Amino acid sequence: MMKINIYYGGRGLIEDTTIYVMNKLTDVLEELRVEVNRYNLYEDKMNISVLPNTLKEADGVILATPVEWFGIGGYMQQFLDACWLYGDKEKIKKTYMFPLVMATTYGEREAQHTLIKSWEMLGGIALEGMCAYVEDNVEFETDPDYASAIENKAEMFYRAVNQKRKLFPSSMSEVKNSVLKNTNIDLTPQESEQLSKYVSDDTYVKQQKQDIEELTQMFKQMMGGTGEQVINEDVYISKLRISFQPMKDFEASYAIQLIDKNKILVIEIAGEQLKCYYGEKEDAEVFAKLTSELFGKIIEGSITFQKAFMSGELTAKGNFKTLRMFDTIFQFGDQ
């Protein structure tokens, strides 16, 4: 069975005539026993980078987008970028594309040409498709002549895909081969698919940014501080790791400012996981200020974190239950 995917780059507004045309095209294609799948980019904008994987089973695609003020819109551009970065180019080469552009302002033909040129740059087969300027969406959607023209376009698209119609060569393919160079690392389709999943995983991206921040802070310390400072700061983190006594389901975060070093030591705890680094954490549960000398006494077990707070040597704000837990999670006196 033939499979057609529709990628809609609009905002889903009820007055968007693009939706009406997509529905008409879908009705005709389904009558011709075509399996049609629609992807509304605005509904799944966090996962647009993985959508090129859905091209695998498609014989043809419809790229549908309205022109509200200028161009093809951000969602559609983001999808095409993802196709360039993560799409299976060998599969795209065999995939027919039908551009659909409905405009409420000037620029429907330019947007149509943008979609065609983009697909050709990707190596795919671009058809003429359809575009129109719509001043009154009700008048357009109730006109039987327009409905008939849309149905004819759907049938032409079906025939082109079904017959694997050969198109005349385009100079765009030559430009792609001789001028455009994808500077990305050569990846297999499977590796590209996996990479696109990582990119769409917000947790993974945040973790990568945090790891980079840790490395940045470490190298800044190595370049800007004395050897003694770096060693001392490493000792703090090392001692925290050694003294860590994890508790199931306990999560907390501390931002400890070492006043005389003008640095903030961030401690993040999630069950059995401990992360320590120098940087910023505005949403830490406990903010504490103390000297490096006092912190040295704490990690050596000479004084507890809470006792230093009660004596006024250490100032803190935030969740005081979490503050008290510091001496339970880190048992320095036992070392």
Automatic annotation (TrEMBL):
Q: Where is the NADPH-dependent FMN reductase-like domain?
A: 44-129
Superkingdom field: Bacteria
Q: Name one Pfam family in it.
A: FMN_red
GO MF annotation, one? oxidoreductase activity
Q: Which residues form the SCP2 domain?
A: 247-330
Q: Which InterPro entries match?
A: Flavoprotein-like_sf (IPR029039), FMN_Rdtase-like_dom (IPR005025), SCP2_sterol-bd_dom (IPR003033), SCP2_sterol-bd_dom_sf (IPR036527)
Q: What is this protein called?
A: NADPH-dependent FMN reductase
